[in-house]
Amino acid sequence: MRQDPAHPHVVATGGKENALKVWDLQGSEEPVFRAKNVRNDWLDLRVPIWDQDIQFLPESQKLVTCTGYHQVRVYDPASPQRRPVLEATYGEYPLTAMTLTPGGNSVIVGNTHGQLAEIDLRQGRLLGCLKGLAGSVRGLQCHPSKPLLASCGLDRILRVHRIRNPRGLEHKVYLKSQLNCLLVSGRDNWEDEPQEPQEPSQLSSEDTEADELWASLEAAAKRKLPDLERTSGAFQTRRRKKKRPGSTSP
Amino acid sequence: MEKAGGSRKKGLKRKRAAEEPQEAAVVEDGATDSGGQAPKATAFPPGFSISEIKNKQRRHLMFTRWKQQQRKEKLATKKKLKKEREALGDKAPPKPIPKTIDNQRVYDETTVDPNDEEVAYDEATDEFASYFNRQTSPKILITTSDRPHGRTVRLCEQLSTVIPNSHVYYRRGLALKRIIPQCISRDFTDLIVINEDRKTPNGLILSHLPNGPTAHFKMSSVRLRKEIKRKGKDPTEHVPEIILNNFTTRLGHSIGRMFASLFPHNPQFIGRQVATFHNQRDYIFFRFHRYIFRSEKKVGIQELGPRFTLKLRSLQKGTFDSKYGEYEWVHKPREMDTNRRKFHL
User: Fold this and answer.
1) Angle at CA B172, nearest 5°, toward B167 and B178?
2) What is the distance in angstroms between the Cα of B332 and the nearest Cα belonging to chain A?
3) What does pTM read for this prediction?
4) Confidence of residue A218 (pLDDT cuts 50, 70, 90)
5) Coiled-coil segments, which residues (chain A) (predicted)?
6) Do B335 and A135 touch (CB under 8 A)?
7) What is the number of domains present in chain A?
8) Using alpha carbons only, how large is chain B's radius of gyration in Å?
C-alpha cells in the first residue's frame, strides 16, 4: 500500500492476485481507480498478477508498479483505458523494490537476485544497471535532489550509489542484520539534535500517566503495555523493520 | 690460473660457442694454454638476450650456462645471509614470512567478532535457533535428481551412513516443491538433493526444512569409499564429532551453522569418528575420518567415507524456490571473482 505524497488522502493498494486499486480515504467506499489485467498472452493464458511495489509519479495522476513477474507497468487513471499504459520487463526474477529518480522520467527497480536497473518510463527501455548487491533488494530510495540512491538488502550491507555521471558505488556500510527497509531522512545533522535528553523525561511522564490510568481501571484482564516507546527511542538509526507480506521471518 | 682451468673444462664447448662476451685477457689465456683451440671473442650488441639465438642447440647451451650461473649466485647469497644471521646471533632480525594468498587475503568487513552482541542476537533468532536450543533433533532426507546413475546412488548410500538419522529415497520424477510439504509433515528437518550430470554428481542442494534457508553448492572431486586409498573399515553407527574450520565471515557463519544442524548434538566419542568441513579460499572440503590417540600428542587417522569439495553458489531465504525465492547471497562471477585475494566465506 502506498500513500500519494501530493495528496495524503489518496492511497493505492496491490498485492498477489490483487490488482492495483486507488482509494480515496475521504471519498466513497469504492476505489477511485481499479486497474484491469492485461490481455491474455500469446498462449491465450491469463497473465497472473503480483504487484510488489507502487509509486506515484509526481505532477500527474500516473502510477508505476513493479511485479513479481519481472514487469514494470505504468497506469494512468486519467486515461479511459484501465489497462497499463506502458509495460516493460527486466530480468527473470521477481522485482521487489522500486524508487523514482529525481528527474522523474525513470525508475530504479531491484530484484531478488540483487540486480538494480534504471528503466526509462517514456520509452520503456533499460537505461543501465548497478552492480554490487549480492542478495535480494529489499529497500530502495533516491535522494530528492542529488543523483544518489540508497539500497539495502538481505546481504546485510547498506549501499549508496551514484546514478549518473558516472554510475557507480559511492559508499557501503556493513550492518549486521538482514535489512528490510530504509528511509532517507530530510533532516541535516540529525545526530546533533538534542533529542536524547528530552526523551527519557517524556517517556517517564507518559509511563506514569499510563500507570495511573491502569491503576484507576479495574483489573479486568491483566495485560502488559507493549514497550513501543522505549524501543523507538533507542534506535535513532534510519532502519525500520517493516513486516512484508509473504515473509516468514519472525 | 683459475680462469684457464675453467676455460679448459668448457674448451670443447668454446669451439662451438664462438660468440661469447669475453674479455681479451681470458682469450689470451686460452690461446696460450692449449694452442689447438682458438676461440674468437665477439662482443654482443647491447640489449641482446639469449632467446634471440636462432640455433636451438646453442641457445639451449647458453641457457643452461646462464642457469648454472644464477644458481651459483643464489647459493652464494644464501650462504652469506646465513653467516650474517649466525654472526648476529640473538640480534638477528626475524625471518621474513613468505606471502601466500591466504596471508594476503583482503580483510572482509563482515568477519564475525566472537563477542558481537548483534550477531549473537541474530543467531539466537534465526532458523537454526531451534536446533541449537536443543528443541529439535535432525532428521534428514537424502535424494537425487531424476534418474540417477550408479555413482550418485552409491554416494547417497555412503552419505546416509555418515550422517546419522538420514533416509535415502528415490526421486521418481517428483517436483521438489511437492516433496517439501510432505517432508515437513513427516518431521524432517533437512533435505539434501544431490544433482547429477553425465553420470557424476556435481551439485548439492541443502534445504533446512520448516522454513529455513536453502544453500546450493557446486560439488566436485567426489571420491567414493572404494576409490580412497588406505581407507579404514566401514563407519559404525556412532554419532560422529564435527569440525568446522575457517568459517569466519557472516555468510560463512550461516553456512557453518547449516552444516552443524545436520548432525545430532551429542557425539559419541566411543566411535572415534569425525566429520570435517574445512573451508579454504571459498572451497569447503568434506572429509570423514576415524582417529585414535596413540599417546598424549600423537594421533593416527584413517580416512573412511566419501570425500568431496563444495563451493557455494547461492543461499536462498526460505525453502527451495529458485524462481520466486529471495536470495540472501548469490555468487556473481563477474563481480565477485575479480580479485584473487578476496573470499566470501
Assistant:
1) 80
2) 8
3) 0.75
4) very low
5) none
6) no
7) 1
8) 31
Residue type, A68: G
Q: Take residue B4 and report the three cell numbers written for it.
A: 684457464
Q: Does B323 touch chain A (CB under 8 A)?
A: yes
Say whether residue A231 is in contact with chain B using an 8 A CB cutoff.
no
Domain presence at residue A31: yes
| Whether A178 and B336 lie within 8 Å, measured CB to CB | no
Predicted confidence (pLDDT) at residue B25 exceeds the cutoff of 60: no
State whether the Cα torsion B256-B259-B263-B268 is positive or negative: negative
Has residue A167 been placed in a domain? no
Which residues in chain B have their CB less than 8 angstroms from residue A112's CB?
324-327
**Complex-level ipTM beyond the 0.90 threshold:** no
DSSP for A80-125 reads S--S-SEEEE-SSS-EEEEEE-TTSSEEEEEETTS-EEEEETTT--
Q: How far apart are CA B40 and CA B31, in angstroms?
A: 10
Q: How do residues A139-179 score in pLDDT, each as one tens digit?
A: 999 988 888 999 999 989 999 999 888 888 999 999 888 88
Taking all residues of chain B, what is their mean pLDDT, rounded to a whole number?
85
Shortest distance, CA B279 to any CA of chain A (angstroms): 20
Identify from A171, A176, A178 which residue to disrupt to test chain B contact, counting B C-beta atoms within 10 A and taking the largest count.
A176
Interface of A with B in 175-194 (CB under 8 A): 176-178
Domain ranges, residue A46: 2-136
| Chain B neighbors of A237, CB-CB under 8 A | none
The answer as to whether A212 is a domain residue is no
* Domain-embedded: residue A189: no
pLDDT at residue B1 tops 50: no
Put simply, whether A243 touches B (Cβ < 8 Å) is no
Separation in Å, CA of B312 to nearest CA in chain A: 13
Closest by Cβ to B329, choosing from A92, A134, A248? A134
Query: How close does chain B come to A167, measured CA to CA in Å?
Result: 15
Residue-range domains of chain B with CATH: 116-337 (3.40.50.10480)
What's the CATH code of the domain at A116? 2.130.10.10
Say yes or no: B108 contacts chain A, CB-CB below 8 A.
no
Residue range A44-68, pLDDT digits in tens: 999 999 999 999 988 888 899 999 9
Q: What is the pLDDT of residues A193-203, one digit of tens each?
A: 554 444 444 44
Contact B336 A114 (CB under 8 A): no
* B291 DSSP β-pair partners: B301
Q: What letters, b where the CB count within 10 A reaches 16 and e where it falls short, cover A75-88?
A: bbbeeeeeebebeb
The mean pLDDT of B195-210, rounded to a whole number, is 93
Cβ A63 vs Cβ A54: under 8 Å: yes
